[in-house]
Amino acid sequence: MKKKIITAMRIIYSKINKDIFYFKEFGLKNLLRAKGRHVAFPCLIEVKRTDCKYPFWLREPSTDVSMYSQIFINFEYDFAIEKEPEVIIDAGANIGLASIYFANKYRQAKIIAIEPEKNNFELLLKNTAQYTNIIPIQAALWNLDGKIDILDSGLGECGYMASDKSINTVLKTPSVRYVQQVTSVTIKKIVKEYQLDRIDILKMDIEGSEKEVFSNSVEWIDKVKSIIIELHEYMKSGCNRIFYNYTNDFDNEWQQGENVFLSKGHYLKKISR
């Protein structure tokens, strides 16, 4: 009985903390909307921040709020920079939160936001519509231009992954399912299409596809000044080895949250908090 009471108290405490967080970050109206929504019908929470020029929206329930916390509360993309960036590629842009964060911090930068999954991309378009410096592309970053399958890894809205393998081979785990086929695009093609002479910041969170992307990086890696990446060795064996094999020229490295930061020289520097 005592264990059941403790467990129940922890659940209640967790729910109270969540309500306090929602009220503090999103206001009473959005707290009530989130609590009153039907499980089968997610609602959109409108977020207005003094450090963002325009409002944006999060889905509830989804992984959006968790991602919001990582970026805007834990500041996982915060760093010191030697010179204002002119070109940022946000690969695995999801609903555009990192792009929005960068667009408000570096208002002169061109930000190319790449996201493959249809529902994520639709909200990305809504969230970034007023930012003229964000260029949204619905595609999966890959090592070949063409078509690629998108799979749901079972990790929520931030866990969609690209795969060129047979669906029968990949879907050994019940939680993984086929979602759709999308365009695949290479950094080489993006560099050519947008006439980029350099990439100041390459932010990448692409659920294991970094293995394929960096295996074909010889033609563009010299243009990159810094990389912010979440590595997914647990999802695809060999990600770490391939990534570090092709980034030997980056001499400044640190871990921040879930991301590895690499910089040539001191273009990016860690901020002590």
TrEMBL record:
Q: Which SUPFAM superfamilies does this one have?
A: S-adenosyl-L-methionine-dependent methyltransferases
What is the organism lineage in this UniProt record?
Bacteria, Pseudomonadati, Spirochaetota, Spirochaetia, Spirochaetales
Segments traversing the membrane: none
GO: which molecular function terms? Answer: methyltransferase activity
GO BP: any one term: methylation
The record's annotation in InterPro entries points to:
FkbM_mtfrase, SAM-dependent_MTase, SAM-dependent_MTases_sf
Cross-referenced PANTHER family: METHYLTRANSFERASE, FKBM FAMILY PROTEIN, SLL1173 PROTEIN
Name of protein: Methyltransferase FkbM family
Methyltransferase FkbM domain spans which residues? 90-236
Q: Which keywords, in A-to-Z order, does the entry hold?
A: Methyltransferase, Transferase
> Would the keyword Magnesium be found if you checked this record's keyword annotation?
no
- Annotated coiled-coil positions are none
Keyword Repressor listed? The answer is no
Superkingdom classification of source: Bacteria
